[in-house]
TrEMBL record:
Pfam families: Myb_DNA-binding. Residues 9-61, 62-116 form the HTH myb-type domain. Residues 180-195 have a biased composition (Low complexity). Residues 203-213 have a biased composition (Pro residues). Keywords: Developmental protein, DNA-binding, Nucleus, Repeat, Transcription, Transcription regulation. One of its GO terms (molecular function) is DNA binding. It is found in: Nucleus. It comes from the Eukaryota. This is Transcription factor MYB16. Residues 9-61, 62-112 form the Myb-like domain. Residues 365-378 have a biased composition (Gly residues). PANTHER family: MYB FAMILY TRANSCRIPTION FACTOR (PTHR10641), TRANSCRIPTION FACTOR MYB16 (PTHR10641:SF586). It comes from Vigna radiata var. radiata.
Length: 408
DNA sequence: AACAACGTCAACCGCGCAAGC
DNA sequence: TGCTTGCGCGGTTGACGTTGT
């Protein structure tokens, strides 16, 4: 309470860093590591507060930072994770290797947020603005439920990310001590190694409190497995299907942080065009064709054509989806279609990237509301497909490894 | 050419959490 | 158990660059 700001001391410099200061900080950390940030400035001969040094290092000087324009995939990742996690920039950054939370935050505020707003999408709720206005009480309630569940899951995500981060640090230092590369930390899944390494720790990171019902992502997995179509009797349906996926051994998480294994639900119905040559997590979006290779990313709004209409259907679909989770509604389309794989034909990427060539009527400016047809014949079934794909893509994201986070 | 408006982003601020005492 | 300290996070600011008038 009332703690004085760390930079209150007279004589401490503020404002932009000079190259000389950068050099000093860099040289010191390279030689000694940062250690205590508070003590660092004096040791490094800097007239800065420790906080400023830490910020400068983490956001700018750290060698494993990728600077420059965000790729299309990174943008997609940010949007999807933001839909799930909200303004949890550090958690989002965990999934974007070599990007800092500050950079992501800035990019969101200056680019993505504006684009979504321009398209008539609420950047906070990721719902069409008019939809929010029209939503009835019931819809609001279900949306709130979904949001609530997402909060539980995001808390869990963070805890696990932290766990992995710690385990990485430990394994790294362990490797350094041993002086040889061990299969110990690198070959097993991070979650496994985390649990092993945690034996050194008095106690594991506290798991988030249990959600009121199965977490949203468990539900999503059940959804993806089509399992809860088999028994749609209320919440029990969900619980009865979580075991189907087979990766729910952890009492605290359904996440797979395996470094080598591909995400559980990779490339449904499509090829994997990711090179991942820089060890990026396998952030793959459900869908085919995506053929991101064939997509010419242009400056500005070009790449966003189609997103406005698609996101409308995604978001609207959330209401229905949530109702289904409550066991009060059954996904008729899925039921009648039978094959779940058939439904998951088109991924978020595709939906995001639909170009005018597919639907010339689409425009990037404010036309979202009226564009409810993706290519004319898109009707009710597409509506549910979009919803399904939206969550598939988020699931894939979540299943992808955060192990190369710059935070590690 | 000068000024205003707007956009971008590095850096700062304040708060909350957790560890240590 | 309560207080202090250090760290990390998210929100905000302000300097600087770019574009428009």
């Amino acid at each position: 309470m009332g703690r004085s700001p760390c930079c209150d001391k007279v004589g401490l410099k503020k404002g932009p860093w000079t190259p000389e200061e950068d050099q000093k900080l860099l040289a010191y950390i390279e030689e000694h590591g940062h250690g205590s940030w508070r003590a660092l400035p004096a040791k490094a001969g800097l007239q800065r507060c420790g906080k400023s040094c830490r910020l400068r290092w983490t956001n700018y000087l750290r060698p494993d930072i990728k600077r420059g324009k965000f790729s299309l995939q990174e943008e997609q990742t940010i949007i999807q994770l933001h839909a799930l996690l909200g303004n949890r920039w550090s958690a989002i950054a965990t999934h974007l290797p070599k990007r800092t939370d500050n950079e992501i935050k800035n990019y969101w505020n200056t680019h993505l947020k504006k684009r979504l707003t321009k398209m008539g999408i609420d950047p906070v709720t990721h719902k069409p603005k008019n939809d929010a206005l029209l939503s009835s009480d019931g819809q609001s309630k279900t949306a709130a439920n979904l949001s609530h569940m997402a909060q539980w899951e995001s808390a869990r995500l963070e805890a696990e990310a932290r766990l992995v981060r710690e385990s990485k640090l430990r394994s790294h230092s362990l490797q350094q001590q041993i002086g040889s590369s061990s299969t110990f930390a690198s070959s097993s899944s991070a979650s496994t190694s985390a649990s092993v390494l945690n034996n050194n720790k008095p106690e594991a990171p506290p798991p988030p409190p249990p959600p009121p019902s199965r977490s949203s992502l468990d539900v999503l997995k059940a959804w993806n497995n089509g399992g809860w179509l088999k028994s749609s009797e209320g919440s029990g349906a969900i619980a009865s299907t979580v075991g189907v996926s087979g990766d729910l051994e952890s009492p605290t998480s359904t996440l797979s942080f395996s470094e080598n294994a591909p995400p559980i639900m990779n490339s449904i119905g499509g090829e994997n065009n990711n090179n991942n040559d820089n060890a990026m997590p396998m952030i793959e979006f459900v869908g085919s064709s995506g053929n991101s290779s064939s997509l010419v990313k242009e400056e500005g709004e070009q790449e966003w054509k189609g997103y406005d209409s698609s996101i409308n259907t995604f978001s609207s679909g959330l209401h229905e989806f949530t109702m289904a989770m409550e066991g009060t509604w059954v996904h008729e389309t899925l039921r009648t279609n039978g094959s779940h794989d058939d439904i998951v034909e088109e991924g978020f990427t595709n939906l995001l990237l639909k170009t005018n060539s597919e639907d010339p009527s689409l425009s990037s400016e404010g036309g979202g509301e009226s564009n409810n047809g993706d290519g004319g014949s898109a009707g009710h079934s597409d509506f549910y497909e979009d919803n399904n794909n939206y969550w598939n893509s988020i699931l894939n994201l979540v299943n992808s490894s955060p192990s190369h986070s710059p935070m590690f």
